[in-house]
Design goal:
By secondary structure, the protein is α+β, with helices and mostly antiparallel strands. It has 2 domains: about 10-180 and about 300-385, Aminopeptidase (3-Layer(aba) Sandwich), CATH 3.40.630; about 185-295, Alpha-Beta Plaits, CATH 3.30.70.360. It is built from 10 helices and 20 strands. It has an 8-stranded mixed sheet, with helices on both faces. A 4-stranded antiparallel sheet has the order 4-5-19-18, covered by helices on one side. Strands 12-14-10-15 form a 4-stranded antiparallel sheet. β4 and β5 form a beta hairpin.
């Protein structure tokens, strides 16, 4: 299997259906799909899969669209997935979409809509050619990969098929990089409440903003763990609160996260955060409420030999079809959940583009057939066929 390559007939097929893939990309891009609200996009994908003959497709409780192949009674399941959600909760239908001779422009066009399309086009080829897998296969258009989606979709898959998934591929990102090391994170909302009052008449009363700013400064005094081969970061991303310029603030809040690709470093950051929260509470100048709003685990006891083999294969395929170097790196992706359960998982990319997580995101049209070849070869290795 390690020497598998696409036959010339499949390469020719991919070249012939580039326009079809672009049209499917356009149709999906137009449908809003903020995390936790992927209903419309999920329904479209389910209908599309049923129309091409993918029998047994269903939408689960997490709004994943799932197409199981040869999974009954099997505990050797390989999962292929690409996420449906975007980071734009305020955009309504239709989502912005445009193109020129070189690029396609749409929020989420690369992350992750084209990755999804590349997988779906491989599924269509498999169904219409009646290809049979040599193991159990799950194709998943999954929900809630972004931000405070908290990887809800892949969590549902790993729970529903607990103990049966042997490996997982999630298509996400550009084909110049492969994510195979998980960045874990903890995300918090910290709320401050004080007595407040009039800025002149009640001068001297505790100010929630002042108390919050002290904690933020203390959090930024953190010296991140320095363990060779790891990276650890932290960030305050949103601050809000107060009433007016002449009001002593009664309430304010901020969002804070720390990340690391090392569980040991993540634990160190957690201990530092909890210590600073306790110090702030002991000052008794504000009521402090801490809510964990997001948690992504690091890897745990993954078979390194299997993970390296999957990584090397994907890098080789990406470089073969793109002619560009493909690096391996750390990242926060749907791989976090399976790897935290000891299941090997990698995240190959299938496009070239830019502006990820902005309304100006773009995808290079010339990368469409390249990305499809990458996705097809990674997937079809698991199917038996004869020409």
């Amino acid at each position: 299997m390690m020497n598998f390559e696409l036959a010339d007939e499949i390469i020719a097929h991919i070249e012939s259906c580039v326009d079809e893939a672009k049209e499917l990309l356009r149709q999906i891009c137009l449908i809003p799909a903020p995390s936790h609200h992927e209903e419309k996009r999920a329904e479209f994908i389910k209908n599309w899969l049923e129309e091409i003959g993918a029998k047994g497709t269903y939408i689960d409780d997490a709004l994943n669209v799932v197409y199981p192949v040869n999974c009954n009674g099997r505990d050797d399941i390989t999962v292929f997935m690409a996420h449906t959600d975007t980071v734009f909760p305020d955009l309504t239908e239709p989502m912005p979409y445009s193109e020129d001779d070189k690029n396609i422009y749409s929020p989420g066009v690369g992350d992750d809509t084209f990755c999804l399309v590349a997988m779906l086009m491989a599924v269509k080829y498999i169904v219409q050619n009646n290809l049979k897998p040599n193991c159990g296969i799950l194709f998943v258009a999954n929900s809630c990969e972004e931000g405070l989606g908290n990887l809800k979709g892949v969590k549902q898959i790993m729970n529903d098929y607990s103990g049966r998934v042997k490996e997982l591929y999630t298509f996400d990102g550009q084909y110049t990089a492969l994510v195979n090391k998980c960045v874990g994170s903890h995300r918090y909302k910290i709320v401050f409440e004080t007595e407040g009052g009039h800025s002149f008449n009640n001068f001297g009363n505790s100010n929630a903003i002042h108390a919050m700013s002290e904690l933020i400064c203390n959090l930024y005094s953190c010296k991140t763990p320095e363990i060779e081969g790891t990276k650890t970061t932290y960030n305050v991303g949103v601050v809000s609160g107060g009433t007016s310029v002449n009001t002593i603030a009664q309430q304010c809040e901020f969002l804070y996260e720390y990340r690391s690709d090392s569980k040991e470093c993540l634990d160190i950051m957690q201990a530092f955060f909890e210590k600073e929260i306790e110090k702030a509470r002991n000052k008794e100048n504000a009521k402090i409420t801490v809510e964990l709003i997001g948690e992504r685990p690091c890897a745990n006891n993954v078979d390194e030999e299997k993970l390296n083999a999957m990584s090397e294969k994907c890098v080789r395929i990406c470089e073969k079809y793109s002619g560009m170097p493909c690096i391996t790196k750390s990242g926060s992706t749907d791989c976090n959940i399976p790897q935290s359960l000891g299941v090997p998982a990698v995240c190959p990319g299938v496009y070239i583009g830019g502006g990820v997580h902005t309304r100006e995101e773009w995808l290079e049209k010339a990368s469409v057939p390249v990305g499809m070849k990458i996705a097809f070869e990674i997937i079809l290795e698991y199917f038996n066929y004869v020409f």
